[in-house]
């Protein structure tokens, strides 16, 4: 491109040119401008590319900064989002389904709270412990029963959930449940599973193996209680309440009624599990 002083110097000469000569002169100057612009653009691109290469080289020499979370965090976060694909990826990568956070909460606990049935099924199929306990001894069944998620309660029971699991407050899933349908499901499951055995004063094999032996009922002692419940068939751990209302004294099951009896020294006070299956 011509300098400003050069253009001023040639103005007298241009003034003496004819119209055709002026046109040719202008075209020549324009061609020079385009050529010089293209050259400047090429040089600018070269400098920019050089700076970009230098920047990339410098970045490659620095360590990459990445935030990595432990598997327990990523698994629970994916489960909380109900992201089945991501959870499946973690499980197939070898991540344990029983990983828990600082409160002992597992992905199965979280899914039972959030009512994610498909996630619960996937975790159970991957080997998640159905009776996993958090820092307060809550099991997934406690969580599902408290929230009244009937279909999850049924699923957990089918997978062998402990119906008599007691948390640190002494509550079983039954004690925390307020939904009538879910309560009926828990009661039926306890009766069908054999947690309640009318032929054994301690509720079958479970009670006989883990609880103290109670005295045998006698006609005199049995008559001490009026039998407020119908068809009471078992004993449960401390915390359960009678369907006809909480009991204030230890009760013992003898046949179709509940009677008050003295318990052996050191025994845990209990309350019966009453199903009301028939008239007294």
From TrEMBL:
Keyword Lipoprotein: yes
GO cellular component, one term: plasma membrane
Ranges of compositional bias, category Basic and acidic residues: 54-63
Topology in the lipid bilayer: Lipid-anchor
Keywords, alphabetical: ANK repeat, Cell membrane, Coiled coil, Lipoprotein, Membrane, Methylation, Palmitate, Phosphoprotein, Prenylation, Repeat
Keyword Metal-binding (UniProt): no
Location relative to the cell: Cell membrane
SMART domains per the UniProt record, alphabetical: ANK
Ranges for region Disordered: 36-63, 196-228
ANK repeats: from-to residues: 103-135, 136-168
Biased composition (Polar residues): 210-221
Protein name according to UniProt: Protein phosphatase 1 regulatory subunit 16A
Species whose genome carries this gene: Equus caballus (Horse)
